Amino acid sequence: MTQGSADKLDRGIIVIASVVVIGAIMSILDTTIVNVGLATLSRELHASLSTIQWVATGYLVALATVIPMTGWASERFGAKRLWIAVVAMFVAGSVLSGLAWSAGSLIVFRVLQGLGGGMIMPAGMTILAQAAGPQRIGRVMSVVGAPMLLGPILGPVLGGLILQHLSWRWIFYVNVPIGALALVLAVRLLPRSEPQHGERLDVLGLTLLSPGLAGIVFGLSETSSHGGIAYIGAWLPIAAGLCCVGAFIWHALHTRVRPLLDLTLFRAPGFAAAAVTVLLIGAALFGSLLVLPLYLQVDRGQSTLATGLLLAPQGIGAALVMPISGRLTDRIGGGPVVLFGLIVMTAATIGLTRFTAHTPYTATSAILFVRGIGLGCSMMPAMAAAYSTIARQAVPRATTALNVLQRVGGSIGTALLAVVLEQQIKAAIPAGSGAFAGGAVKPLPPGLRDQLAAPLAQAFTGTFWWAAALTAAALVPAAVLAVTVRTGAAARSRTEAPQAA
User: Fold this and answer.
1) In terms of Cα–Cα distance, which of 367, 221, 345, 364 is closest to 296?
2) CB of 326 within 8 A of CB of 142?
3) How many angstroms separate the Cα of 114 from the Cα of each of 95, 109, 233, 410?
4) Most CB atoms closer than 10 Å: which of 103, 200, 401, 439?
C-alpha cells in the first residue's frame, strides 16, 4: 500500500465520522438551545431565575462528573457499546425533560441528560482516533470539530425559532429524532471494539476527581451568576474541588492501580503543550461565546434569533478552514498550524475590543469570520497534535484528559469573563440608573439602552481585552508544541535516513 492510499480518508472513516458528528452536534446544540430558553422556562414553570438556572448548571456539573470515567469505560465495555449507551441515556433524558411538570423535575432530568451527554463527545473521539490512526488524525479531528464550533453559533438560532413558534418542550424533544437516527446508524456502521477486562476501576480516584471537577465547575457557575468570587457559595465549592483534585494528583502519581486520569501522558512535552493549549483555547472560546451574544442583545438591542445569525460568520469561517487545517496538520504537524491559528485568533479578538455602540454589522461579521478562521486552525489541530504524540492504546485515556481540560477551561473562561463584564458594567454605568437591578445582565428597553449604549460598549470592549489575553497566553504552549513537532520530525528523519540507505 502506498503512503498516499494509507493517508487517504477512505469511505469507512468518513462514515464513522458522520455517525459520531450526528451524536456530537446533538449534545452540543442542546446546551446553547437550553441557555436561550431559561427566561421562558422560568415563566412557564413558575420558578425564579435563581432556581431555573440549575437547568443549565446541573447539566454542566453532571458533564464534569462523568467525563473522567470515559477512558476506563471505553476500555472496559468497548467504545462502540459505550457510545450507544450514552446516546440512549441522553435521548431518554431529553424525553423526560420534555415531559417535566415542574422546575425540580426538569432539573433532575437534565442531570440524567448530562450524565449521558458528558461521554458522547469523548467516546466518539476515541472511536475516530483509533479508526484513523496518527497519520490521518488531523483531518478526522477537523470533521468532528465542526459541531464543536458551529453548535454554540447555531444553538441560539434554533432555540429562538423553537421558542418563537413552538412549546418550550420542543427544545428537548428536538433531540429525539436526531438521537434515534444516531443510534440506528451506530449499531449498523460503527466498528466493533473489544472490551479490555484487565483494568479495575480506580474507585478512590473516581471519588476524588469527579466530585472535585464538579465542585470547581459548580463554583465557577455560581461565581458568574452571583457576582463574584466573594460569594461563599462560589469560593467554597471551588476550594473544596481544588483540594479534591490535588489529592487525586497525589493519588495518581503514587497508586499501583492504573489511575482514572493517566498523568504520565503529560511527561511527553508535546502532549503537555497541546493539553495546555486546549485548556486556554477552551477558556477563550467559551468565555467569549458568553460575552458576544450579550453585546449584541444588551448593547445593540438584537433579538435572540438575530444574535445567532450575526454570530454565524465565526462558525462559517471555522467550518471553511477546518478541512485545510486538518490536511496541514497531517502533513507538517499540529504545532505550526495551531501557532498560526492563534496569531489570527488573537488579532481578531483584539479587533473585538474596537467595537462601539454603532459598529457596522458588516465590520463585526468580518472580524468574527477572521476569528473563526483562527479557531478552525487552533482547537482541533491542538487535539490532533496531542493524539499524534501517544500510542494507539493510550487514546481513550488521552481523550478523557483532553476533554476534562477543555471542559474546565470553558468553565473558567465563562466564569472569568462573566465576572469581569459585571464589574466593567458597574464601573461604566451610574448606580442610580436603575439598569441591571439585582446584577442581572439582560436586554434593556429601547429608551434606556439609547442612553447607556456608549458606556455599555466600553464595558464590553474592556471584557474583550481579557478574552484577547487568554488567547495570547495560548501562544506560549503553542510555540512549545511547534518546536516539539519540528524536533520530533527531524529526529524521525535522522532515524529513517540510514534505513532508506
Assistant:
1) 364
2) yes
3) 13, 9, 22, 16
4) 401
The answer to whether the Cα torsion of 22, 27, 29, 30 is positive or negative is: positive
CATH of the domain at 324: 1.20.1250.20
Give the per-residue pLDDT at 495.
Answer: 44
Spatial contact of 102 and 45, defined as CB atoms under 8 Å apart: yes
For residues 120 and 161, state if they share a domain.
Answer: yes
The gap from C-alpha 198 to its chain's centroid, in whole angstroms, comes to 32
Is 206 found in the same domain as 187? no
Output the pTM of the full model.
0.78
For residues 279 and 359, state if they share a domain. yes
Report pLDDT for 70: 82
2 falls within a domain: no
Quick one: pLDDT band at residue 146, thresholds 50, 70, 90?
low
111 and 178 fall within a common domain:
yes
Summarised one tens digit per residue, pLDDT across range 343-379 is: 999 999 999 999 988 899 999 999 999 999 998 898 8
Asked if residue 138 and residue 237 are part of one domain, the reply reads no
In DSSP notation, 388-423 reads: TTS-GGGHHHHHHHHHHHHHHHHHHHHHHHHHHHHH
The last residue of one of the domains, among 212, 239, 258, is 258
Determine the average pLDDT of the residues in 220-248.
Answer: 79
pLDDT tops 90 at residue 270: no
User: How many domains is the chain partitioned into structurally?
Assistant: 3
Residue 433: pLDDT over 60: no
Report the run of H or E that residue 352 belongs to, with start and end: helix 334-352
Q: Is residue 76 part of a domain?
A: yes
Angle at 14 between CA 13 and CA 15, to 5 degrees: 90
Enter the C-alpha cell of residue 315.
Answer: 462558525
**Structural domain span for residue 145:** 12-193
Which grid coordinates belong to 372? 473563526
> What angle separates helix 379-387 from helix 137-165, to the nearest 10 degrees?
140
Q: Mean per-residue pLDDT for 26-45?
A: 77
Cell of 4: 498516499
Closest CA to 145 of 123, 121, 126, 127: 121
| CA torsion angle 75 76 80 81 (round to 10) | -170
Could you read off the pLDDT of 77-129 as tens digits, one per residue? 888 889 999 999 999 999 999 999 988 899 899 989 988 888 888 888 888 77
Of residues 141, 119, 129, the one with CA closest to residue 73: 119
Instruction: Say what the pLDDT of residue 198 is.
Output: 58
The span from the CA of 169 to the CA of 177, in Å, is 14
Residue 436 confidence (pLDDT) above 60: no
C-alpha 327/C-alpha 334 separation (Å) is: 10
